[in-house]
Design brief:
Largest sheet of chain B: 5 strands, parallel
Oligomer: heterodimer
Number of strands of chain B: 22
Number of domains of chain A: 2
Largest interface: A-B, 18 and 22 residues
Number of strands of chain A: 0
CATH architecture of the largest domain in chain B: 3-Layer(bba) Sandwich
Helix content of chain B: 25-40%
Helix content of chain A: over 70%
CATH superfamily of the largest domain in chain B: FAD/NAD(P)-binding domain
Order of helices and strands of chain A: HHHHHHHHH
Number of domains of chain B: 2
Structural class of chain A: mainly alpha
Amino acid sequence: MSSEALDTLLEQLSAPENREPLESILRNLPVISGEIQELRELREKGILQSLMGIGYLVASLKDVMSSEMISGTAGILDALLELMGKIAKPEFMAAINEIVDGISSGSLATGTKVKGTWSLLKDVKDPDIERGLAILLSIMKILGRMGKPDTTK
Amino acid sequence: MKTIVIIGGGSGGISTANHLAYRLRGSISSGDVHILLIEGSSRHYYQPGFLEIPFGVMSETETYRDERRMVVDGVDLIQENATAIDLKNHEVATQKQKIRYDYLVMATGARYDFDAVPGMGESTFNFYSLDDSVKLKKALNNFKKGKIVVGVTSMPYKCTPAPLEAVFMLHDYFKSRNMLDAVSIEYVYPMPMAFPDKGVSDIALDMFRDRGINPSLNFQIKSVDTAKKELVSRDGKRISFDLALLVPPHRGSKLVEDSKIGDPMGWIPTDRFTLNITGYTDAYAIGDATNLPVSKAGSVADAEAIVVADRISKQVTGYEPDTMYDGSGGALMVTGLGKASMITSSYTQPPVFMPESYSYYWLKLIYNKVYWNMTAKAVLSGVNE
C-alpha cells in the first residue's frame, strides 16, 4: 500500500464515526465470512439472479400499483375465499363428486329410464327431482335477470 | 348432546365459533354437539378499520358486515344480549332465555369508560367506534391550523400501537395537504416510554424526531378542561390542544362485572396457557376480556380462539386437551400513509419491530379486505378440516 493511501486510511480512521463501524466489522468477521459464503452459493446456483429479478419486479409494482388497485385485488381475493367457503362444504363436494362420477361412469344416464311423457311426469313426483327442478328454475331465473338487455344505454 | 356456548360475536368469538364448527362438523351433523353464539349486535365490525376511516384508507361501510353472514354452517347465532353468567351452575341468561352449557367461551371484549376522565366525552375525539371515527374524519377535514394532541388515558387499551399509528397517519395526512407548517402534533402517553416495550419506544421516538412530533411522556391524564381546551394530569400539569384525540379508559364488559367473575377492572382471571377461566376447566376466556399480559388486539384474540377451539373439540370428543397458548400476537402497524411495519411478540419473545416498508402497507391493505373470510370465517381452515 502506498504511503499516500496509508495516510488517507489513517486520517479516515482518526474519526470515531469511521473507526467504530470498522471495529464492528472486525469483531464480526466470522459472521461476515459465513454470510459471504452463503451469498457465493446463492450466486453460483443462480438464485441471487432470480432474487434480484423478483426485487426489480416488486420495485416496479410499487410504481404501478396504487392503494386502490391493491385494495381492489384483495377484494376479489376475499370474494373468492367466500366462494371457496361455500364450495368446500362436505355435502356440496359429495354432490359434485356424485354428478362427475355419474357422468364419467355413465350411471347417471342409465339410473333413471325415461319412457315417454307419462313416465317423465311420474318422475317429477319424486321429491328429490321436484327439488332439483325448483333449483334449476331458480338458477334460470337468476341467469335471465343477469342477461336482461340494458335499456338505459 | 354437548352444548358449547360462546358469548360475544367480535373477532375472537366468531373465530372460535367457526373453528369449532369446522372441527366438530361430524358431531354437529349427528346431533351430538350444539354450538351457540350469543351476540346482541346485528353487525360484525372490523375494528382496526375505525382508525383508517378518518384518513380515507377505509370507508365506513367497509368496516362491518352482517353478523349472520360471518357465521358458518353448524353455528346457531342467538341475537340477544347475555345478561348473566353462572359459572358454577353452567348457565347463561339472556334477555329472553336461560341456556345451560357444557363448555363456555367468554369473548365479551372491553368497554370504554369515558366518565373516568371528566370532560373527555364533551371535548375530545377518538377512533374507537364507527360513529366516533366518522366524527373525527369530519373534524380533521375541517381542521385548518393549530395543535393536535394524540393521548392515551390509561393502560391497558385495545391495539397498543394504535395511538402511534394515529400520530404517523396524522403527520402524512397534513403533509399531503401541505399543512405541516400550520399543524403541530403532540403524543401524550402515561408511561415514561412511548410504548410499553423500550425497544419499540426508542424506534418510535426516533421516528417522532424525524417527523417533528413532540412526545410528552409520563403524563397521566386526569381530566380535560373543556373551557381552556387543556389536558390536566394527575400532578397538575397541563397540555393545551386545538383538537384532542384520546384513547378512552378501558374496562371489562358490564356482563363480567355484573356476574362478578372479573377483577376490579372487569378483566377475567385467565390461565395464560390453557386460557381457562381460573378454577374452571370447562370455561374459557379470550381476547380483550382476559387479564392476560398480552396486547388487546384482534390477532391475539384469533390466536387464542384457535387454541380454545382445539381444546374444546378435544374435550368434547374425549381427548386430553393439550394445546397451549404461547402469548403470540402481531400487528401490522401503519407508520404513515404508504408505509407500515409489523410487530410480533409472545410470552418468551419481546416485541420485534420490523423495518418500515411499503410491502407491509400493502399487506395491511390486503388484510383489510380479506379479514372477513381469512380470519373471522377462517375459510382455509374449514377446507382443511
